[in-house]
Every structure is written in structure tokens, then in C-alpha cells.
Backbone:
């Protein structure tokens, strides 16, 4: 067999080892390196991909992160080539980064010390087939895939805004939602897309290294699968040699829109060209099954086909609360989209869906909140949010209702005229989506402030001055015009999501809390004024409940708005989520409606197989969907007719490693001191004591934060405790009531308290389960 070798040119001892192995290799797996293949006068970047395409497979050194290597790996996987990841253990922390980024961390590796060791291990290595089965994916109804960034900057804000405006329906790889990108998730997302857009950042960007690795892998995978691929590059970024000629340098973020517009005709040509199926060679039932995306943002056009209408969804739809709170992955965003879509179908309802992004809110805090005088912050921020709400209502009315209603109703026409005049004043030259309009307003206030007071920071904005800078016209004129129109509608619904997504990875400060609490005050204020004008206005604010409980709930009187808690205390309801998705996908692809019993072994370890998975899903839909998808994928690539026990166990192992990484990232968002603390549990017994947990944390350097980290472990269901009747219980068994589980634990005897490590984490942490 003749493979091609992908490896970094530095550090030198990696390239020397691999090139020496090429010379002395006596194994059945021969390989060529780029250095020996491409002589003088040949363009390396134009020659690598053809060499990989004709090779029997790819040997890839992933000891250190390298964009060229991951681009080549993605391309090889797209071309259905076997890959053999190798790691040089003489490199410090070799391959450790894979645990954080997710890519290839659950793919078997050859770990070698030198060229002789690598030759020896290749001699006994059995070459498997491609790591995924032949693709058989339908292209999504959201056909464009976009790589987002961990911290939404001007570049990514302009990119998402341009995509929203020009393409409308798209999906994202969003590291803020799930920091780890598994190889399987990337494979499925790219397969289900017609085109992919990624960006390459320079070294000044937060998370630039891992972002660029994701970008390189997705781009290589897209090109390997013959998808349209656009690679946008920071002007000062190092362009990887392998794909330098297909990069588009973006000199200014305003140029991004043009680059996206050039992709749009190609995207639609793909859609019209009948590329609904990539390939359809495999007719096994397991190959026809899909459980969809575990992120509602990436399946909003398909949710209607399989959405499970829970009691919390019905409460949100019928306005029986104002704050929709739930854990990350509990299904809040799915409720957001379904409430929006159902409400929009009613002809005389006006629905606004506002999703500020992280960059926007961070700039809001840096550029506006920081300028405010301490005693006036709350009042001023409430006024700012109120102004934003009225502006967005004006924009929505003129976007959706003006053409439909103007001139047809003698009462509405003059009101619409007033609103049209207001828009030209309120938005001036600000265009784009909600994110860009809000950023434009913040920039206007800043520019006017600095023009008046300079940039020495000695002057703080007072409420009256902010009002002067903020209001382009009298607020009462805006209110009267907006409320006059809303009186004519049966109902106006404001949906606000992502407000807590902007909080950075270094903890939450009082200004973060103030941003949320003043938004709530502004929404209440607009609701009251609408009611006085006999206009029916409702609103829903979607929050992660870890943020809500730890922060917002500490403020007085927030509870009076009414919480709709999105939790899943019923295993049967969670299992129904999977049944509906299986039914929908198989009905569409085979014309037959099948269920879990048709695609899986019935039992494992004396439990029903779907119940076994549910108990390991942290009782969250996102995680159960991901877990089931891993099991289906493993069964498919192994050529099984159904999910076997080995597929359940292998899928669970992959899932556990992912959930560990993502939970570590979530914990860091709340408490920076807890970063990577979860890995201190490696190798412990699944049933242990509180003292043993504390000792393990102390050994790894977390001794100064023991109580805080242990509390977070319980909060995120990493740890559970023994109930009064001796049962293993986690916070989701108490409907995420932290006080209740704390009271239950209070009876225990200090460090001798009996503690459990959740199955979902114990597998990936190699905890010893003797229960």
C-alpha cells in the first residue's frame, strides 16, 4: 500500500523522523513525503491534493497543531481515504491539544518516539477502511455552512450579517455553543451542505490557532467532498501553503459582503442542479436514519417535522411566563424558533426575533456601559434598551407590513407614513441586521461623546447626556407612533435570545448582570405602555438557567416576571424526541416509518437500549441526540444492519469525551478558576467520597478553590450524591433546584460523604466503576 504523509515542517525532529522513516520503511505501509515527491520547479500547493487523491491513504502527524496538516486530513477523509494519525511522543505535550479542539481525539493513533519506532509500529498496523461510511446525506434546507468564531469580532459579525442578508438559511459551527468540534459532527455538517465558508485569522485574534485548525479541516473536507468552499483571510494572517491560492484576503470587514455575494450564485446553482443527494449507494436501513442536528439553530427549517411539544413549549407559546430558562442544550432555542414560526403564521400578529451576538454585547459593555456614571447606569441602560426595542419594532413593521398593508387601509396608511419618516431618522446610514444596527448606534454614541469630551476617561456620561446623544428624535414621538400601530395588531411578540452568550470566558461581572436586568426592566416598561394604549404586547427572554440562578435571580423582584423552566424530568419524553426524529427521517427517505426498536438491539446491561442511553445523556435533548448519532454512525461505518452493543459502547465513549470537554468550557465561563478542573477526576472510582474528590483537585493545583469547584461539579451534574434512601441522584433529578440538592447533602458527614461521578463523564475519564 502506498500512502502519502502529512506532517509539519517544524519542529525539525518531527520532519526528520518521518523523512528518515520514508527511507528505511520496510513495512507493508509505504508512504511518500512532500519533500521527496515535489522536486524543484513544482508548485507544492497545487500538487499535494492530487497526490493524496491517488494515494491509498494518509499518514498524518498530529503531534502539534498545523493548518496544512489538518487541511490535508480533511481532504483525505472527504475522498474516503483511510487515515493513520501518528504522534511523536518526544514532543512536549504531544497531541494534548486534540482533547480541547475535539478533532481526531477519538481516532486511534500510533504513538512513536523516533523513526525506528515508527517503522516497527507500521509493520504491525492493520489498515482499516475510511473512518466514515460512504456518504448518503440529503442536503440541508439550510445549505450554507459557516464557521463562526469563539469571540465574535468585527470580521465574524460582518460575515454572519452578510450571510443572513444574502443567503437567509444557513448553519454554523459555533464554538461558543460547543467548543469541541468532533470529527463526526464536522463530517455530517459538511456532507449536508452545498457550500462552506470559513475564515483564517491572524495571531492577534482570540483562539486564532484552534479557529484556524477548524477552518483548515472544514475547508479540506469541503473540497474533498466537491463542495463550494470560500476561505476568507485576515490581511495579516499567515496563509497556509496548501490552500494559499484559494484564499480571499479581506482587507477590511466591509469587503466581506462582496465575497459572500460571489458565492451565492454558486450556492443556488448547486441547489437547482439536483444535488439533493450526495451519493446513495448504501441501502441498509441504518444508513437511512438521521436524528438531525443537536443544535436547533442548524435545523430551524426542519424542526416542524419532529418537534416534541412539551408543557414548557406550550407555556411559552401561550405566554404563561416571561423568562424561559434552561440548561445549555435543554432545548430553549428550539422553543424560540417554534414559537416564532407558529406565531408568524397568524396574519395579524407582529413577531420580532432579536438575537444579539457576543461581540455586540461585549462592545456594548466596553464602549457604552464603561462610560456611564455609576449612579446612573441602571436608569440609562434601561433607556438604551427601550430605545433599541422601539427602533426594532419600527424596522420590523416597515420590513414586513409596509408593502402588504400600505394604501389598503385608510387608518394604517398615515401611521405607516409616520413610521417610514421615523426610520430614516432613527437608523440614518445604519444598515444590515440587528447586530450591525445595534453596533452602529453604540458607535454613534461613542463618536459623539469622544468628540465632545475627548478620550482621557475623565468624564462620565450622565443620564441626560446619554438621552441627548441617544435619541435622534423625541422619545415620546417614537412611542406614540409605534404604539398607535401596535393598537391595530392582535398581538405583538418580542423574542430575545443569546443575551447571555456575550459573557466572556473570564467570569461574569456586575455590568453583565446589569445588562440583563435593565433589558428586563425595559421590556416590562414597553409592555406597560402598550397596555395603557390598549395594545397587546408580550415578550419572552431566553436565558441559561445556570446564569439566571447564579446571577439574575440575585436581583430583587426578577421572579415576578414568571419563569418557564425548560427541564426534562421524564425519560419517556426525552426518548420521544429520538423516536420522532427517526420516524421523520426514515419516512422521508424510505417511505416507511420506523422506530428505535427497528434500528437497535433491544437491551444492554439489563436495560432497554434507549433507556441505557437516556440515563447517560444528562437529561438534555442536545446530548441525547448527539449520543444516539454517535451510535448510529459507528454502526454504519462498521457495516452493521442495526446498532449493536459494541456500537452503543463505542458511541458512548466518543460522546463522553465530547461532553467532558464542553462541560469544562461551560464551567470556565462561570468561574475561570475551574478551567480543566474536571480532568482531576481521571482514574477515580465512579463511587467515591467527597474527601477523595478534594484530594484529587488539590493535587492538580485547585486547592484554593475547592468549595467553588465542587459546587460547580454538582451544578453541572458531574457529581451526584446519595439520597436519604440510598439512591444515586443528580441535580436534574431535583429539577435543577440547587437549594434542594444542597439540603439533601447537608445530612452527610463531611469529607466522608458518598459521591458518584456521573456515567456521562466517568466513561471518558476512565473512572473505575465497581458499582
Residues:
Amino acid at each position: 500500500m502506498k500512502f502519502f504523509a502529512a506532517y509539519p515542517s517544524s519542529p525539525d525532529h518531527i520532519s526528520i523522523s518521518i523523512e528518515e522513516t520514508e527511507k528505511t520503511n520496510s513495512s507493508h505501509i509505504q508512504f511518500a513525503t512532500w519533500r521527496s515527491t515535489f522536486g524543484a520547479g513544482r508548485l507544492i500547493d497545487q500538487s499535494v491534493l492530487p497526490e493524496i487523491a491517488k494515494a491509498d491513504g494518509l499518514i498524518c502527524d498530529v503531534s502539534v497543531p498545523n493548518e496544512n496538516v489538518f487541511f490535508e486530513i480533511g481532504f483525505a477523509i472527504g475522498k474516503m481515504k483511510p487515515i493513520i494519525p501518528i504522534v511523536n511522543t518526544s514532543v512536549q505535550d504531544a497531541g494534548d491539544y486534540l482533547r480541547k479542539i475535539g478533532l481526531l481525539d477519538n481516532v486511534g493513533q500510533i504513538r512513536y518516539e523516533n523513526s525506528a519506532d515508527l517503522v516497527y509500529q507500521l509493520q504491525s498496523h492493520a489498515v482499516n477502511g475510511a473512518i466514515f461510511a460512504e456518504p448518503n446525506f440529503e442536503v440541508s434546507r439550510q445549505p450554507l455552512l459557516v464557521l463562526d468564531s469563539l469571540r465574535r469580532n468585527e470580521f465574524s459579525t460582518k460575515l454572519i450579517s452578510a450571510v443572513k442578508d444574502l443567503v437567509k438559511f444557513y448553519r454554523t459551527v459555533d464554538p461558543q455553543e460547543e467548543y469541541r468540534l468532533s470529527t463526526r459532527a464536522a463530517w455530517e455538517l459538511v456532507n449536508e451542505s452545498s457550500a462552506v465558508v470559513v475564515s483564517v485569522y491572524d495571531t492577534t485574534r482570540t483562539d486564532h490557532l484552534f479557529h484556524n485548525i477548524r477552518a483548515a479541516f472544514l475547508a479540506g473536507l469541503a473540497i474533498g467532498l466537491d463542495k463550494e468552499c470560500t476561505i476568507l483571510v485576515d490581511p495579516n494572517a499567515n496563509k497556509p501553503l496548501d490552500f494559499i491560492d484559494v484564499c480571499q484576503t479581506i482587507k477590511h470587514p466591509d469587503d466581506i459582503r462582496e465575497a459572500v455575494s460571489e458565492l451565492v450564485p454558486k450556492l443556488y446553482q448547486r441547489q437547482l442542479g439536483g444535488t439533493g443527494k450526495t451519493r446513495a449507494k448504501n441501502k441498509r436501513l441504518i444508513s437511512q436514519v438521521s436524528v438531525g442536528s443537536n443544535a436547533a439553530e442548524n435545523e430551524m427549517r426542519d424542526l416542524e417535522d419532529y418537534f416534541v411539544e412539551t408543557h414548557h413549549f406550550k407555556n411559552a407559546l401561550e405566554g404563561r411566563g416571561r423568562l424561559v430558562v434552561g440548561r445549555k442544550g435543554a432545548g430553549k432555542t428550539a422553543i424560540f424558533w417554534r414559537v416564532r414560526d407558529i406565531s408568524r403564521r397568524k396574519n395579524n400578529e407582529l413577531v420580532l426575533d432579536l438575537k444579539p451576538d457576543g461581540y455586540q454585547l461585549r462592545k456594548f459593555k466596553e464602549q457604552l456601559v464603561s462610560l456611564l456614571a455609576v449612579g446612573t447606569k441602571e436608569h440609562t441602560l434601561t433607556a438604551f434598551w427601550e430605545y433599541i426595542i422601539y427602533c426594532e419594532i419600527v424596522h420590523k413593521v416597515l420590513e414586513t407590513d409596509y408593502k402588504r398593508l400600505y394604501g389598503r387601509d385608510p387608518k394604517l396608511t398615515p401611521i405607516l407614513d409616520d413610521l417610514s419618516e421615523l426610520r430614516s431618522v432613527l437608523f440614518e446610514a445604519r444598515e444590515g441586521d440587528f447586530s450591525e444596527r445595534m453596533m452602529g448606534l453604540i458607535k454613534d454614541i461613542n463618536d459623539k461623546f469622544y468628540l465632545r469630551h475627548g478620550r482621557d476617561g475623565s468624564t462620565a456620561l450622565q443620564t441626560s447626556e446619554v438621552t441627548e446623544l441617544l435619541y435622534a428624535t423625541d422619545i415620546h414621538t417614537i412611542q406614540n407612533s409605534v404604539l398607535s400601530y401596535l393598537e391595530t395588531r392582535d398581538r405583538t411578540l418580542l423574542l430575545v435570545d443569546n443575551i447571555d452568550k456575550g459573557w466572556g470566558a473570564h467570569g461574569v461581572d456586575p455590568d453583565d448582570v446589569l445588562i440583563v436586568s435593565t433589558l428586563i426592566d425595559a421590556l416590562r416598561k414597553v409592555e406597560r405602555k402598550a397596555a395603557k394604549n390598549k395594545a397587546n404586547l408580550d415578550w419572552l427572554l431566553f436565558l441559561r438557567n445556570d446564569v439566571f440562578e447564579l446571577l439574575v435571580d440575585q436581583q430583587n423582584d426578577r421572579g415576578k416576571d414568571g419563569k418557564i423552566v425548560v427541564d426534562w424530568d421524564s425519560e419517556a419524553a426525552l426518548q420521544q424526541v429520538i423516536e420522532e426524529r427517526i420516524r421523520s427521517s426514515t419516512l422521508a427517505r424510505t417511505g416507511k416509518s420506523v422506530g428505535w426498536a427497528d434500528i437497535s438491539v433491544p437491551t444492554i446491561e439489563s436495560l432497554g437500549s434507549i433507556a441505557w442511553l437516556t440515563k447517560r445523556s444528562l437529561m438534555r435533548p442536545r446530548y441525547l441526540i448527539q449520543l444516539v448519532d454517535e451510535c448510529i454512525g459507528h454502526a454504519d461505518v462498521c457495516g452493521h444492519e442495526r446498532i449493536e452493543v459494541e456500537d452503543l459502547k463505542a458511541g458512548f465513549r466518543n460522546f463522553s469525551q465530547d461532553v467532558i470537554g464542553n462541560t469544562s468550557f461551560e464551567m470556565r465561563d462561570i468561574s475561570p478558576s475551574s478551567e480543566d478542573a474536571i480532568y482531576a477526576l481521571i482514574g477515580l472510582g465512579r463511587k467515591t467520597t467527597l474527601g477523595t474528590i478534594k484530594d484529587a483537585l488539590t493535587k492538580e493545583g485547585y486547592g484554593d478553590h475547592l468549595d467553588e469547584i465542587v459546587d460547580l461539579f454538582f451544578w453541572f451534574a458531574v457529581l451526584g450524591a446519595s439520597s436519604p434512601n440510598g439512591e444515586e441522584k443528580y441535580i436534574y433529578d431535583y429539577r435543577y433546584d440547587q437549594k434542594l440538592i444542597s439540603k439533601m447533602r447537608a445530612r452527610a458527614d463531611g469529607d466522608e460523604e458518598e459521591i458518584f461521578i456521573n456515567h456521562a463523564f466517568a466513561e471518558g475519564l476512565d473512572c473505575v466503576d465497581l458499582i
User: Anything to note?
Assistant: The longest strand covers residues 537-544. Residues 275-280 have pLDDT under 50 and may be disordered. The first helix runs from residue 12 to 24.
